[in-house]
Specification:
Blueprint lengths: L5 H7 L6 E4 L5 E5 L1 H21 L4 H20 L3 H13 L7 H25 L3 H14 L4 H13 L3 H16 L3 H4 L2 H31 L13 H6 L3 H21 L11
Antiparallel strand pairs: 1-2
Helix pairs in contact: 3-4, 3-5, 4-5, 5-6, 5-7, 6-7, 7-8, 7-10, 8-10
Protein name: Peptidylprolyl isomerase
InterPro entries: AIP/AIPL1/TTC9, TPR-like_helical_dom_sf
Organism: Vitrella brassicaformis
């Protein structure tokens, strides 16, 4: 069944509704739509429902609940149900419990937060939410700067946004990180695939830069005159230019005319007696 837009329902009933987007100080920062308002409300309701489920659970039970959500989200991702996977991954993040010690916090980050955030970034790539993908990868890299998946996915997001320099840096770092792995880890198919894909992106970026450089060189070449009838700097240095010779000729012609007008006696031939 086709989903009906809330905007369409309101229009068909003759209702007029204006929705504005505001910041934390309730200052209007732009327009919004009724569907966006509904989606935000549904997301808030889902978060509240998740919180009611987990608020009384102990840390170990929360971790198990979050792990189950993660596995469910992974299956949805494999089935290419990306929006549903995003919801499950988001639920998982709500249930994270970092404990009371640094060791517990680190364990939660490495075994749940990091893989969930990187997988959520992959979902954002699939749904063309490139800015959100970059933000999630930034979070993942703040947990583990050597996270190859986060580095590669951030590079892809930058590349799609035509942020070539940032993308190139991430792809170069992806290749470097894979090359720095232990031989057993380096031989893993996932790491080899990431390195191969990063190398393909790098080749494309380098080719594009060469083409752009050649184009700019032709546009701003100094050894070629801007107009075909204007001499270059080299020809001007070697002798009088065409324009200068023409100007001298014009001056001589004008001088002769003036002489004929104001000194006619100089132009009259002498009579012989």
């Amino acid at each position: 069944m086709e989903r009906t837009s809330l905007d369409d329902v309101l229009k068909s009933s003759g209702a007029q509704l204006e929705v504005k987007r505001v910041d934390k100080d309730r200052t209007i920062i732009g327009d919004s739509s009724a569907d966006e308002m509904r989606d935000a409300a549904l997301k808030q309701q889902r978060m509240e429902a998740v919180w009611r489920q987990i608020k009384d659970l102990g840390r170990s039970d929360k971790m198990k609940w979050a792990s189950d959500k993660r596995h469910k989200a992974n299956k949805l991702y494999q089935q290419q149900k990306f929006k549903q996977a995003i919801e499950e991954y988001s639920d998982c993040l709500l249930a994270l419990d970092f404990g009371k010690s640094e060791a517990e916090a680190r364990d939660c980050q490495e075994h749940l937060q990091l893989p969930v955030v990187t997988n959520l970034a992959a979902c954002m790539l699939e749904t063309n939410e490139n800015r959100r993908c970059i933000a999630l990868c930034d979070t993942a890299l703040s947990i583990d700067p050597r996270c190859i998946k986060a580095r590669f996915r951030r590079g892809v997001a930058h590349h799609r946004l035509c942020e070539t320099d940032e993308a190139q840096q991430d792809f170069v770092e992806t290749v470097r990180l894979v090359d720095g792995l232990e031989e057993a880890q380096k031989a893993e198919e996932s790491h080899l695939q990431l390195k191969k894909r990063a190398s393909v992106y790098l080749d494309g970026i380098q080719r594009r830069k060469k083409v752009d450089k050649a184009m700019y060189s032709r546009m701003f070449a100094k050894d070629k005159p801007l107009y075909p009838d204007k001499p270059s700097a080299g020809s001007a240095a070697s002798g009088p230019s065409v324009w200068r010779r023409w100007a001298r000729h014009a001056v001589r012609v004008c001088a002769r005319l003036l002489v004929r007008v104001f000194c006619p006696e100089r132009n009259t031939p002498k009579r012989e007696d």
